[in-house]
Amino acid sequence: MKKQEIKKLTKDEALKNIDKLKKDLFNFRFQKINSQITNPSKITETKKTIARLKTILKGKINA
Predict the structure, then answer these.
(1) Using only C-alpha atoms, what is the Rg of the chain?
(2) Cα separation of 11 and 40, whole Å?
(3) Cβ proximity of 34 and 45 under 8 Å
(4) According to the 3-state scheme, what is the secondary structure of 4-63?
(5) What whole-number distance in Å separates Cα of residue 23 and Cα of residue 60?
(6) Which residues, 6+ apart, have CB-to-CB distance to 52 below 8 Å?
(7) Whose CB among 5, 9, 36, 61 lies 3.0–4.6 Å from 31's, allowing a Cys bridge?
(8) Which CATH number among 3.55.50, 3.30.160, 1.10.287, 2.60.40 corresponds to the domain 3-62?
(9) What was the pLDDT predicted at 12?
C-alpha cells in the first residue's frame, strides 16, 4: 500500500488491514522455512506496511 492510500483509510479499515497483514506475515514465515516462498522481499514489505499502518493509526487516535 502507498502512503496516500493508507492516509485515506478509517480506523476500522486500518485495523482490519493490520490483522490481515499479520496473518500474511505468519504464512510467509512458514513458507520461508519450507523454502516455498517465491519472493522473499514480501516479508520485508509486509513488515513495513504494518509499521506504516500503525503509525498512521496512532496519529489518528491522538488527534
Answers:
(1) 13
(2) 29
(3) no
(4) HHHHHCCHHHHHHHHHHHHHHHHHHHHHHHCCCCCCCHHHHHHHHHHHHHHHHHHHHHHC
(5) 24
(6) 1, 3, 6
(7) 36
(8) 1.10.287
(9) 92
**SS3 (DSSP) at 63:** coil
Strand blocks (E) in the chain: none
| Residue pair 56/2 in contact by the 8 Å Cβ criterion | no
Whether residue 18 contacts residue 6, with contact meaning beta carbons closer than 8 Å, is answered with no
The three cell numbers locating residue 39: 519472493
Model pTM score = 0.86
